[in-house]
Write a structure and sequence with these properties.
Chains A, B: This is Peptidase M20 dimerisation domain-containing protein. Two copies of one chain form a homodimer. Chain A is of the alpha+beta class and 473 residues long. Chain A is 35% helix and 21% strand. Chain A folds into two domains: 300 residues, Aminopeptidase; 116 residues, Alpha-Beta Plaits, CATH 3.30.70. In chain A, strands 1-4-8-5-9-18 form a six-stranded mixed sheet, sandwiched between helices. In chain A, strands 11, 12, 13, 14 and 15 form a five-stranded antiparallel sheet that branches. In chain A, a hairpin with a 4-residue loop joins strand 6 and strand 7. About 2% of the residues of chain A have low confidence. At the A-B interface, helix 6, helix 7, helix 9, helix 10 and strand 12 of A face helix 6, helix 7, helix 9, helix 10 and strand 12 of B. Bound molecules: zinc ion (4 copies).
Chain lengths: 473, 473
């Protein structure tokens, strides 16, 4: 069933207050990857918890232990759990989101201060780090709660919340917590959950809402090549010694070619070629080469064929070289590059990668030393979209946006998705709020005001559509 | 003729004062490559000028104009000129040195603060940025001046000084100044100069003094590959677009291999293979594979054959990859690597390098954009060591060190060397003060106290040996 008209009206009438809510959240620079900002992640957790409490949600702040970051021992930010409704005749929906953000500095090229929500009245864009990833969406849920609280309308489903503060840094501590809760059975926080809804990705383009049923995994490697005991002057040592930089560049050049083809034997082959039928799915998506070029800011698509480009993102493994640490004048001690491999369906790609790099390094015949580290990663995930939760989201999208949603798979990873799917044994839906050009993790991240407001309506409406059938239907 | 005993005694007796002089100079962080420290380079120029004046040298501070650095317009540090003696019956020696230094920060791995001269009493080492490159040597000349001034002994030759403050940053402005002075003929500052002596390099090892008669040139390129308009998330764009980082790594991997061989066709071939006779010169030098490994801090020599390794440094071209600017998470806008090519005798290698990189880039078939910049460089230089100035330095070395000097060529570049040789048409001698493990441009740069003190004696004695013949001999 559609959401009550009062709810939709409330959302439109409280636009300014909702934007102010997002502005308050963006002002807290909750960067999980920077020890300097760890306290801000805790502040952001408290902010979110108090918002939930204000609208009648029972909350719990769960410590997740400590970890080491940049040589410092730090407390992990807590998971913020929430519970509202316990009606056995209603379905129970678990909502996940994260309140940490990527780093951002004005000097990276931001047009506005990244931690001050800045409105562009002419375009309706709300600029700020975290506006789209993922503060906008989690506050969309808070907006839904406020509407029901203030209007004194009961929620159509029971809700459980699980918000974390380490998503941008490998979700440390969360998997263990979820698994431990599930082990508790009836006493666990997630007992009775019928489906999971995550709003932490984006439309494929800037026009068409989508439902997302697959994510690539990620494995992240760090390769260090070392040799001399200190920086060396190329005038004094050039062509006398093995230079780690030369070896490292040689290794990195053997991983992927300019066209995106992965050169590690067996990796591309792990994914079956698409059948003509599967290709049709990609042909039908509302997407064009112009879309990718607009969002990338350059005419740099790997192909002129839309389906090929979309399959590159959604179903093929990809390998990106993320840089080399340090800039210097000689043959420096350590080279510290990072390489990220996005993969589909084969979580055991890592040994293949490591043994390939080792064997290529041996071929160089260098006296440098090689260390390969397997850093944080995320598992790939594909969901069954022939499920009542997807059907509910489909109807809700048609009601709010008057458009048929695209059904997409995504290139990025949200590590917890598969954990929920496996540990809870329920369907997981990705229901994005933002657009394809929002620029998550990039400079000038934004959320369109219309996506924030209509998105809030969408999230609320989704709950009513989920409730349409009685429990178990 | 040997130097007077009084001079040698004065140097030994003033060891502490001389070290204090070096300490005062090291305390001025005269980093020419950093706009923040430009004022310190000017301070260092004044310090040096006042020292010269104190010992009777007529000086002149010559403005060299302005330039742009990191987007700022800056005044270039002045050249400090000096003149003492005008006796037509004496030879006239021109001394060159530089008072600017490389950057240094404690966090780079220095054991002591880099801009405080720190004595290790047990080893006799004097640690500090510029101690060996090139403040120690230029103050060695000041020590010689002080000795003659305080002892009231006339100098055996006429001296001219030319000290600059931009050597570590491409000697900007200096060539033009020298050429303009030479054009003035009789009125030019360098009129009447019979030979040039430069103390700005190092012994080949830690045991044997040397005279240096050749330097490799340097050409320095910056390659920028760009594509997208902003940082891109590898999860969203991986395998959809051409990634500049992939293209850049591919290009860099095609320049040099792990064994040091230059892959740009024609570059290695520009230098003739060594005859068996020339090979013998390298075999005879007091050098071992252990020396290179000790100074590099690792067992990383390219060969077990001493002559091969030495020829790699002294007569072969070498190509070092100096890094990639930036560390990041996505396919970033610009990649900004630097590549330095040390070459011998073929200053016209640049067009070859540029057209090779361009053609390799075309082969990639990428839609990224390539820009190659040819940054500062230095010309290669080889001198005739069968000259009275080298003979004088040879005798002076035997008198002070009781050792026969090595005759070496060097891997590094001192751009002004060739300018002096060509513009003045006189012999240029490189007479180093420091040892092969001093670590110029590296962390923990040092000068051994004995090199500073005996080196001061060597420079003074060299002047007496030059004076041995009457002018014109
Ligand atoms: Zn996110
Ligand atoms: Zn994110
Ligand atoms: Zn120098
Ligand atoms: Zn230097």
């Amino acid at each position: 069933m559609p959401a009550p008209a009062d709810f939709l009206k409330f959302v439109d009438g409280n636009e300014e207050a909702f934007i102010q809510r997002l502005a308050s959240a963006v002002e807290i620079p909750s960067i999980s990857g920077d020890p300097v900002h760890r306290e801000d992640v805790f502040r952001m957790a408290s902010f979110l918890e108090s918002q939930l409490q204000a609208y009648g949600v029972e909350t719990k702040s769960v410590p997740l232990g400590s970890h080491e970051l940049d040589g410092q021992k730090l407390q992990l930010p807590p998971a913020i759990l929430g519970r509202i409704g316990n009606d056995k005749s209603k379905k129970t929906v678990l909502i996940y989101g994260h309140f940490d953000v990527q780093p951002a500095e004005l000097s990276d090229g931001w047009t506005h201060p990244p931690f001050k929500l800045t409105r562009d009245e002419s375009t309706g864009r709300l600029y700020g780090r975290g506006s789209s990833d993922d503060k906008g969406p989690i506050l969309g849920w808070v907006n839904v709660l406020q509407a029901h609280h203030d209007l004194k309308i009961p929620l159509p489903v029971n809700l459980r919340f699980c918000f974390e503060g380490m998503e941008e840094s490998g979700s440390e501590g969360l998997d263990e917590f979820i698994l431990a809760e599930v082990k508790k059975g009836k006493d666990g926080w997630f007992d009775g959950v019928d489906c999971v809804c995550i709003s932490d990705n984006y439309w494929l383009n800037t026009r068409t809402p989508c439902l997302t049923y697959g994510l690539r995994g990620l494995t992240y490697f760090k390769i260090t090549v070392s040799g001399p005991g200190k920086d060396l002057h190329s005038g004094v040592f050039g062509r006398m010694v093995y230079e780690p930089m030369t070896d490292l560049i040689a290794l990195m050049s053997k991983l992927v070619d300019s066209s995106g083809k992965i050169l590690i034997p067996g990796v591309d082959e792990m994914v079956q070629e698409a059948s003509e039928e599967e290709r049709q799915i990609y042909e039908k998506l509302d997407y064009s080469i112009k879309d990718v070029e607009e969002s990338a800011g350059g005419s740099i698509a790997l192909s002129d064929d839309k389906a090929t480009v979309l399959m590159g993102r959604m179903r093929s493994p990809s390998l990106s070289l993320h840089g080399i640490e340090g800039a210097f004048y000689g043959a420096r001690q350590d080279r510290d590059p990072r390489e990220g491999l996005r993969e589909v369906q084969h979580p055991n790609v890592n040994p293949l990668v490591i043994s390939y790099i080792e064997s290529e390094f041996k071929k160089l015949g260098s006296k440098s030393k090689l260390v390969i580290e397997d850093l944080h990663g995320g598992k790939p995930w594909v969901e069954d979209y022939d499920h009542w939760s997807y059907a509910a989201a489909w109807r809700a999208t048609e009601e709010i946006y008057k458009q048929t949603p695209d059904l997409t798979r995504e290139g990025g990873s949200i590590p917890v998705t598969l954990t929920f799917a496996e540990a809870l044994g329920v369907n997981v839906l990705l229901l994005p709020m933002g657009r394809g050009d929002d620029g998550a993790h990039s400079t000038n991240e934004k959320l369109d005001k219309s996506n924030y407001i209509e998105g809030t309506k969408l999230l609320g409406t989704y709950l009513y559509e989920v409730a349409e059938g009685t429990k178990g239907q």
